[in-house]
From TrEMBL:
GO terms for molecular function: alpha-mannosidase activity; carbohydrate binding; metal ion binding. Belongs to the glycosyl hydrolase 38 family. Pfam families: Alpha-mann_mid, Glyco_hydro38C2, Glyco_hydro_38C, Glyco_hydro_38N, Laman-like_dom. Residues 230-309 form the Glycoside hydrolase family 38 central domain. It comes from Eptatretus burgeri. Keywords: Disulfide bond, Glycoprotein, Glycosidase, Hydrolase, Metal-binding, Signal, Zinc. This is Alpha-mannosidase. GO terms for cellular component: lysosome. InterPro entries: Gal_mutarotase_sf_dom, GH38_C, Glyco_hydro/deAcase_b/a-brl, Glyco_hydro_38_C, Glyco_hydro_38_cen, Glyco_hydro_38_cen_sf, Glyco_hydro_38_N, Glyco_hydro_38_N_sf. One of its GO terms (biological process) is mannose metabolic process. Coiled coil: none annotated.
Length: 859
């Protein structure tokens, strides 16, 4: 069961595809699961329902929902109904029948039979002194009667076993056999209860046969609380380093998959060895578990998840280097420099001349600002055709903040240049160290108090208060939109545990001691660096909190790169760190969050759409999962933040957005981890985190165009590959630039999946990534010719599949449900009409994903 708050939709789809294919290959198509079963994830995403529906599931059962929501649903007999998973796809494409289980994943009280259970077994021998058959039968009938009051039909489901109570099947089935036998014997005395072994899909079939009219849910099940002071909103941020590693691994896997297709089998065996993307694909699938990417595992388990991912990185590095060798004729010694997140790359730091290859996994051309650590002070950069490019050398700001080890001397400078790459392809750049007065490092300028500091590019202007050192305003130069904006870092004080087991913040739970966060510092020390390519303000808030605010040439967003940690331990209290942006926008309690990187949902502070909220935790009860985007707006302006990993976020007051970026806690929250969330990092003093937020200011009607395209680039980040030149290196290469597409796709179309399925077949998913009201142009229907899409592949035919790629779309027939709107009477039972394979043309509607198995000549 993948988590539903922190993974991206890309990773959910990949994980499900892997598992569904395994079931098909192992048991055959007849074993295709019809019901989704998420009995443990801690809150439920609307996008998850949409994805399950598009995979062909008939129903979805889960165990956890907010305790107040459950109480209301039980009273109204509304524990089951239809969940509308999309505001964009035509019903019932994303509709999914959804049921809440009565006891989570546990058996009814009194019916737990296992090693770790305390309930007595059923004794039906009347000669035994421990005879208790009648007691159990009576208790079961009472339990069934009580549960039936919460559900609409005369069918109810009871889960048996539990997460730690399913070790002895013999004991369980021996007692359940007795229970079934003796309960059903009561029918001769007039009992109307019939109990039998069943499955979720059999249960769902009987609900469908009841022909009832069901309610429709349009929002999601976040946030989840199991009691008044226990909101499970801390895990949205827990273990931020692991969350970032998973996000980067996702992007790397897409690159790896694509190059296995574009370069063929030579990607798997070549001068760099033998390897396959399967290693990373499997590690990423496991990492989506609801106690993996969530950060809710013990430290040694988190270490193992990271180790599994690192094995995948090694395999994919080999695949990428073999593929680029084959596609470009590159004879350099290649490396992907996996430690660039801490400014380490042996190639760029030690070589006088090196190459940089930028691979772009998107279907459109991109521009990307390359930043690499260097020891020198002057460099020239040339593209694949030998044309010189502007570059800028800057002193490193985060120098000395990482534990590099005794043997490594960190670089003092960074080289910056803007690269571009064609769709599904790469461009090559040659970097050469220079002597003399060429491209000297841009020196930082220490700002004196009372000055107003301004940085700007063609599109944006940022102003900083010279006295406080904080951002004070932002202006969109294209629209003339001006907005006061103040950004600072704050911390919530974690609740202190005691002998009475008062609820504390932990890996799962967020519960601050007070509702008002404290600033790390009211002021920041400023340095300013300006050059031809980038202008930046460098802020120091404390020895453990720094930030660089950047405006790159041509960029329509401001970049906030922050470095937080090691978080100090003071007074035996944990700290939960946020970044906050305050503006005068009149947002009326509303803000927007994304669902797994796709559709946006509107949130209202201290409000739930389907029940009256009694919020006893004013901060934690307003936190939501932010997979990629958090936004707020009024009539004239929208402020949008795009993240580089999953985080918790909210708008705690009008005109304000906050994101939690780091947590260090000293007490367990009593939800199963059994240890405090106290990551000590490489140096043993506390984990340090480096991350990035993108800030947009634009009129509301143009905001989605900017943030969605930037968000796509954050989710599917391009891959840098570095080459060490030697005497036999050729330049230019046979192909210093390459594109896997004949022509670029429209900006609205995302190549969601491109991977090898078998020797003659590839898996292709295309997505129109804009919602229907996002943008006047980019929300329009698009048609793609798959036959003429690829530059290196000869497409022979294709089959359209369900989203999980385990069933032909034309063979899908889902259960139909009547709802209170009675829309089903007028709608097709099919999700969509499959594409006619003969014309090879594919049409995409807003937010639509279409999945194909494409047959080609040998890959």
């Amino acid at each position: 069961m993948n988590d539903e708050a922190t993974p991206t939709y890309i990773d959910i789809i990949d994980q499900m595809t892997l598992g569904l294919r395994f079931l098909n290959d192992t048991f055959g198509i007849g074993a295709r699961p019809l019901v989704a079963w998420h009995i443990d994830p801690f809150g439920h995403s609307r996008e998850q329902a949409s994805l399950f529906a598009q995979m062909g599931f008939d129903g979805f059962f889960f165990g956890r929902l907010d305790y107040q929501d459950k109480e209301k649903r039980q009273k109204e007999k509304n524990m089951e109904g239809v969940w509308r998973g999309s505001a964009n796809l035509n019903p019932p494409s994303a509709d999914l029948f959804t049921g809440v289980l009565p006891n989570g994943y546990n058996p009814p009280d009194g019916f737990c039979w296992d090693q770790l259970c305390a309930d007595e077994p059923i004794v039906d021998d009347k000669n035994s002194r421990e005879y208790n058959k009648e007691k159990f039968v009576s208790l079961f009938l009472e339990t069934a009667k009580k549960q039936s009051k919460y559900y609409k039909t005369n069918h109810i489901i009871m889960t048996m076993g539990s997460d730690f109570q399913y070790e002895n099947a013999n004991v369980w089935f021996k007692n359940m056999d007795k229970l079934i036998k003796h309960v059903n014997e009561k029918q001769k005395d007039g009992s109307k209860v019939n109990v039998f072994y069943s499955t979720p899909s059999c249960y769902l079939q009987d609900l469908n046969k009841a022909k009832l009219t069901w309610s429709v849910k349009y929002d999601d099940f976040f946030p989840y609380a199991d009691s008044a002071h226990s909101f499970w909103t801390g895990y949205f941020t827990s273990r931020p380093a692991l969350k970032r590693y998973v996000r980067r691994s996702s992007a790397l896997l897409q690159v790896c998959n694509q190059l296995e297709v574009l370069a063929g089998t030579q990607a798997n065996k070549g001068p760099y060895g033998r390897a396959e993307s399967t290693v990373l694909r499997q590690a990423m699938a496991v990492a989506q578990h609801h106690d993996a990417v969530t950060g809710t595992e013990k430290q040694h388990v988190a270490n193992d998840y990271a180790w599994q991912l690192s094995r995948g990185w090694l395999a994919c590095e080999t695949v990428i280097k073999n593929a680029l060798y084959n596609l470009s004729g590159n004879t350099d010694k290649l490396s992907i420099c996996p430690l660039l997140n801490i400014s380490l790359c042996s190639v760029t730091e030690s070589e006088k001349q090196f190459r940089v290859m930028l691979y772009n996994p998107l279907g459109r051309e991109i521009a990307w600002n390359v930043r690499v650590p260097v020891q020198g002070r002057a460099y020239t950069v040339a593209n694949h055709a030998g044309k010189p490019l502007d570059s800028q050398v800057m002193p490193q700001f985060f120098l000395g903040l990482y534990h590099h080890g005794k043997s490594h001397k960190p670089s003092v400078n960074e080289l910056v240049f803007q690269a571009s790459a064609p769709p599904l392809g790469f461009s090559t750049y040659t970097v050469t160290s220079q002597k003399g007065n060429v491209a000297r490092p841009s020196p930082p300028q220490r700002v004196q108090h009372q000055e107003v500091i301004v940085i700007q590019n063609e599109h944006l202007q940022l102003t900083f208060n010279g006295t406080t050192g904080l951002l004070s305003s932002m202006k969109n130069l294209d629209s003339g939109l001006f907005l006061p904006v103040v950004q600072n870092f704050y911390w919530y004080q974690g609740s202190k545990g005691n002998a009475e087991n008062i609820q504390t913040s932990g890996a799962y739970i967020f519960r601050p001691n007070v509702s008002t966060p404290l600033p790390i510092s009211p002021k920041a020390q400023l340095d300013v660096v300006k050059g031809r390519l980038v202008e930046e303000v460098r802020q120091t808030f404390s020895p453990w909190c720094q930030q660089v605010v950047r405006l790159y040439q041509g960029s329509r967003h401001a970049e906030f790169e922050w470095h937080v940690g090691s978080i100090p331990i003071v007074d035996h209290l944990g700290r939960e760190i946020i970044t906050r942006f305050d503006t005068p926008l009149r947002t009326k309690g509303l803000f927007l969050t994304d669902a797994n990187g796709r559709e946006m949902l509107t949130r209202r502070r201290n409000f739930r759409p389907t029940w009256k909220l009694n919020n006893s935790e004013p901060v934690a009860g307003n936190y939501y999962p932010i997979t990629s985007t958090l936004a707020m707006k009024d009539e004239k302006a929208q402020v949008t933040l795009v993240t580089d990993r999953s985080q918790g976020g909210s708008s705690m007051k009008d005109g304000s957005l906050e994101l939690m970026i780091h947590r260090r806690l000293l007490f367990d929250d009593f939800r199963g981890v059994g240890e405090a969330l106290n990551e000590t990092g490489a140096n043993g003093q506390g984990l340090t985190i480096r991350g990035r937020h993108l800030l947009f200011l634009a009129p509301p009607d143009s905001s989605a165009r900017l943030s969605r395209l930037a968000g796509e680039l954050q989710l599917s980040e391009p891959q840098l590959v570095f080459g060490t030149l030697h005497k036999k290196s050729r330049h230019p290469y046979k192909d210093g630039e390459f594109s896997g597409l004949r022509v670029a796709l429209p900006a609205s179309v995302h190549v969601l999946s491109l991977s090898r399925w078998d020797a003659h077949t590839l898996l292709l998913r295309l997505e129109l990534q804009f919602e229907k009201h996002d943008d006047r142009n980019l929300s329009r229907t698009v048609t793609i010719n798959i036959a003429r899409m690829f530059s290196t592949l000869d497409v022979e035919s294709f089959k359209e599949m369900t989203l999980g790629a385990n069933l032909r779309l034309k063979d899908l027939h889902r259960l139909s449900w009547d709802t209170v709107e009675r829309e089903n009477e007028h709608r097709s039972k099919a999700m969509q009409e499959p594409t006619d394979p003969s014309d090879m043309m594919v049409t995409l509607q807003p937010m639509q994903i279409r999945t194909f198995l494409v047959r080609t000549k040998a890959l």
